[in-house]
Amino acid sequence: MVIAGPTGSGKSELAVEAATRFDGEIINCDSLQVYRHLDIGTAKMPPAERRGIPHHLLDVVDPDEVFTAGEYLRRARPLLAAVASRGHLPLVVGGAGFYLRALLEGLFPGPARDPALRARLTEREARRPGLLHRLIRRRDPQTAGRIHARDVQKLARAAEVILLTGRPLSAWFAAGRDPLRGFRVLKLALDPPRETLYERLDQRCERMFAGGLIQEVRRVLELGFPETSPPLGAHGYRQALQFLRGELTPSQALWQAQRNTRRYAKRQWTWLRREPGVVWVQGFGDQPAVGQAACQSVARFLDAG
After folding, report:
1. Where does 2-107+178-304 sit in CATH, by number?
2. Which residues contact 194 (CB under 8 A, 6 or more apart)?
3. Does pTM top 0.90 for this prediction?
4. Distance of CA 229 to CAs 2, 63, 66, Å?
């Protein structure tokens, strides 16, 4: 079972409710919550609120490590099998679409990551913003159409594949993947009112900054992790870093974090609208009526099996 939705829509709360009702275990599918030492800016559910439900793939790598969709696939599929073998319901929970797609559909048989080439591409993009998207648009318009112009990590991967193989990413995708087998999959997605979600996200950003986000970033740096660590480029963390460097005032940092978080939620909605087989649940996952409706969908799905 998958619980998806835009950031701040209450996925974690719904997952704990569903896991409680259906004897489930939660497998994280959030690209930031895999990192240790980063709790406030990733909105991790505190252990005290997890009701004793096992949570997997939280806090599994250090901030300076790159955690790819391929690594997520390698770790998550055995977890699915292990949870099912215990007679429990696996609940894959989070908003990282590229992790979810890798888990369910597999990955294309393309070249391995080339760290040196990736670093050069990222550096060039930093010097000339938009360079990578223009390159992909010329060589692989199909891929360019589904990657946001500011998503440097995905654009660098697409460029890397072209430069290493001479073939566009879309051609590799067409070559086929290794889809998940042995499971029926129910994909639930939360769909709260947009303006209400944006208000919640703005308030959540305020609480993060007031609750120690900048101190969290400072602590990570004091542990010896560099400013270039992947999760520190995410919304919220990036603005906290800019504040620490004296590039933003507190109000500017908060405003930019709020704006970027809203934009991220919009991109997640767009991705989910294109995802086949999604069952939409109207409202927030922490609302009792929404939890009841979602659990009814789960019960019907399990009964049909």
Report:
1. 3.40.50.300
2. 269
3. no
4. 29, 6, 8
Which CATH number is associated with domain 115-174? 1.10.20.140
Integer Cα distance of 226 and 221 in angstroms: 6
> Phi and psi of 83, rounded to 5°?
-65, -45
Which one-letter amino acid corresponds to residue 291?
Answer: G
* Longest Cα–Cα distance in the chain: 58
Alpha-carbon distance of 261 to 206, in angstroms, equals: 12
**CA dihedral over 228, 99, 179, 74, signed as positive or negative:** positive
Show the DSSP H helices in the chain as ranges. 11-22, 69-85, 97-105, 115-127, 131-139, 141-144, 152-165, 169-174, 194-210, 213-222, 237-244, 250-274, 288-304
What is the rounded distance in angstroms from the CA atom of residue 22 to the CA atom of residue 248?
47
**CATH 1.10.20.140 segments of the chain:** 115-174
- Opening angle at CA 285, ends 283 and 291, nearest 5: 95
Q: Where in the chain is the domain with CATH 3.40.50.300?
A: 2-107+178-304
C-alpha 205/C-alpha 219 separation (Å) is: 19
| CA dist., res. 159 & res. 168, Å (int) | 8
Look up residue 281 and give its DSSP letter. E
Chunked mean pLDDT (size 10), the chain, 305 residues: 97 98 98 98 96 98 93 96 98 94 86 86 92 94 90 90 91 80 96 98 98 98 96 96 97 98 95 94 97 96 91
Separation CA 190–CA 272 (nearest Å): 10
| Cα 217 to Cα 3, 157, 222, 248, 263, distances in angstroms | 29, 27, 9, 15, 22
d(CA 27, CA 47) in angstroms, rounded, equals 15
